[in-house]
Each structure stands twice: as structure tokens, then as C-alpha cells.
Specification:
Elements (H helix, E strand, L loop, with lengths): L1 E4 L11 E4 L5 E9 L16 H13 L17 H5 L1 H7 L4 H9 L3 E9 L2 E10 L1
Antiparallel strand pairs: 1-2, 3-4, 4-5
Length: about 130
């Protein structure tokens, strides 16, 4: 199945991207989020340096701590702490461009996160960034 994605924010427009879904997986859920300054630091105040850490902190901020940036959408999948803990492996099994990874680490980016798997079991994420 081919997925065509186009999304906009009030500050940026992402290019349309055409790609195949990860083999044997279906889109479980997707969401858009703004990577704000608070997402760049863990709960102990240490600066995060990997995109998966920042994406995980963004979802923890949203679901666990109620810290939301303008533009953050909700999702049900990462409301579960175990699913947030699996984000590193899911990103490893999914895709993110080198530029998107740098933009997330820098902060201020809008991300589209697509969660793939079977049923309610996530296997991979595809991350797209608009700046």
C-alpha cells in the first residue's frame, strides 16, 4: 500500500512524500507535535541528544505531565508508558532522515509521527519534519 502524506502548520508546509508502508504493517495512528524547548530536556534537566529521546520526552510531557506546546496533537498509542519506552526500537525499525533527526535535536520543529504495526502493537515509526 502506498501512503501519500501532505500536512501543514500555520508556520510551515511539508513537501508531499510518497513511500511504501513498512512491510507487513499497517498504520495504527499518527499525530503532529511541536518540539519545544521543554521537550529537549529530560525530567532531571539533562539535555537530550537523540531524536528518539526527544520524541519520547515530548509524548511524556503531553501524556504524563500535561505539558503541551501549541500545535501538539494527542495520540492514544504513546499514552501508554510501555509504548513510549519502545520508541527507540520503533524508530530503529522505521525511518527518519538525517536532516529530520538534526531538526528534532535542535528543537522548534513540527513533526509528523506515523505509528505502524499490527492491532495495537507498534513495530515502527516514520518521522517527518517541517521547519
Amino acid at each position: 500500500m502506498l501512503v501519500i502524506t501532505a500536512w501543514t502548520t500555520n508556520t510551515a508546509v511539508a513537501q508531499s512524500i510518497t513511500r511504501s508502508e513498512p512491510a507487513g504493517e499497517e498504520l495504527i495512528e499518527s499525530y503532529v507535535a511541536h518540539i519545544g524547548r521543554r521537550d529537549l530536556f529530560n525530567s532531571n534537566g539533562a539535555r537530550l541528544t537523540e531524536p528518539w529521546q526527544i520524541l519520547r520526552q515530548d509524548r511524556a510531557n503531553f501524556h504524563r505531565f500535561g505539558v503541551k506546546d501549541a500545535g501538539d496533537e494527542g495520540d492514544s498509542f504513546f499514552g501508554n508508558a510501555n509504548n513510549r519506552a519502545a520508541l527507540e526500537n520503533m524508530l530503529r525499525n522505521g525511518s527518519i532522515s538525517a536532516q529530520a533527526a538534526r531538526d528534532i535535536v535542535r528543537g522548534g520543529a513540527m513533526v509528523l509521527v506515523e505509528i505502524y504495526g499490527r492491532g495495537n502493537v507498534g513495530r515502527s515509526v516514520v518521522v517527518t519534519v517541517a521547519r
